[in-house]
């Protein structure tokens, strides 16, 4: 590891441009993987600056691709940069960067959805949850196809304080389709308010810090790109298990244009649906005629707290699946129709 004095003056030596790297290794974005390359180093520098002060930091970059953001991170005086790349075509170009920054860049050929980041960095970096965030950052230009499942996975990690958050309140700076970025940061009552808004905001301070026009990427996506920064809260706004919160929020937004009681009713079996939904909303003090987008995180806190008590009273409630009940009812109705048909013959 280089001494801190060396770190403060480190700059990458002259290297081929990202465009030249793409040409050299005959790289092409794969449409099925929703890959889009960011070639403008002024923009990648801006993303990295928006992530905060990375001096002496340990950074985990997801989906580095041809290495545009990777270069900007290395030039930000980090102690170590770990990149995880699933696509083997990008490894030689990243290796060129590693050779130019001895001891700073570690390359893992693997999948960010399964990689165990909690074992990647020194134990000494760990901070108590109540303390300031650790000097560990996650940065990435995510392929659109994995961005939503990945942020949901990481939000669950925040809730459980595991994965990248064993080090403490690790900050994340990530790219999304602009529409998804707007959902993540949408306020109560806005058109973009969604399941993602609530799931992100009950656990993190979420900021849409930058919008990058689609024309800056190669190939040009049909949408602009939003850069979102997440800082986990010292205390979640809803203190219930992640899966329970997710269940309540998902059901509430099932029918986003209808009143909230419609979606929340799907938490309960048909025979007790009306009575249980009324009880849930009454005890949570939530107006049943509010639309899902009008429900604040405080509303969801009350709903989750009451739903938890109802599940404690009836343990089978949490495993209830209204789609499964629909399927069973459909199957029973079909059997009755078949019986009727046979009796007519």
Automatic annotation (TrEMBL):
GO terms for molecular function: DNA binding; mitochondrial transcription factor activity; RNA binding; rRNA (adenine-N6,N6-)-dimethyltransferase activity; S-adenosyl-L-methionine binding. It is an enzyme of class 2 (transferase). Keywords: Acetylation, DNA-binding, Methyltransferase, Mitochondrion, RNA-binding, rRNA processing, S-adenosyl-L-methionine, Transcription, Transcription regulation, Transferase, Transit peptide. Its main location: mitochondrion. S-adenosyl-L-methionine binds at residues 36, 38, 63, 85, 111, 141. Its EC number is 2.1.1.-. This is rRNA adenine N(6)-methyltransferase.
């Amino acid at each position: 590891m280089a001494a801190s004095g060396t770190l403060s003056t480190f700059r990458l030596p002259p290297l081929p441009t990202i465009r030249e790297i793409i040409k050299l290794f005959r790289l092409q974005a794969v449409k099925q993987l929703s890959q889009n390359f960011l070639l403008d180093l002024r923009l990648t520098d801006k993303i990295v600056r928006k992530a905060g002060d990375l001096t002496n930091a340990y950074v985990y970059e997801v989906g580095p691709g041809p290495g545009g953001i990777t270069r900007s991170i290395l030039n930000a005086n980090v102690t170590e940069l770990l990149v995880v790349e699933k696509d083997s075509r990008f490894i030689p170009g990243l290796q060129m960067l590693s050779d130019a920054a001895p001891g700073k860049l570690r390359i893992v050929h693997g999948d960010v959805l399964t990689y165990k980041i909690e074992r990647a960095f020194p134990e000494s970096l760990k901070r108590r949850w109540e303390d300031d965030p650790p000097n560990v950052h996650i940065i990435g230009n995510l392929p659109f196809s994995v961005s939503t499942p990945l942020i949901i996975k990481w939000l669950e990690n925040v809730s459980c304080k595991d994965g990248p958050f064993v080090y403490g309140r690790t900050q994340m700076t990530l790219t999304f389709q602009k529409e998804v970025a707007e959902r993540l940061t949408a306020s109560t009552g806005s058109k973009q308010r969604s399941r993602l808004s609530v799931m992100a905001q009950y656990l993190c301070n979420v900021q849409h810090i930058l919008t990058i026009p689609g024309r800056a990427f190669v190939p040009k996506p049909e949408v602009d790109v939003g850069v979102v920064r997440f800082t986990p809260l010292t205390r979640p706004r809803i203190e219930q298990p992640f899966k329970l919160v997710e269940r309540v929020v998902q059901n509430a937004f099932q029918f986003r244009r209808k009143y909230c009681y419609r979606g929340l009713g799907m938490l309960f079996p048909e025979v007790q649906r009306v009575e249980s939904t009324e009880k849930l909303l009454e005890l949570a003090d939530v107006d049943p005629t509010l639309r899902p987008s009008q429900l604040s995180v405080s509303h969801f806190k009350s709903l989750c707290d009451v739903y938890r008590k109802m599940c404690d009273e009836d343990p089978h409630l949490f495993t209830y699946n209204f789609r499964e009940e629909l399927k069973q009812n459909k199957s029973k109705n079909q059997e009755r129709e078949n019986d009727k048909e046979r009796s007519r013959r």
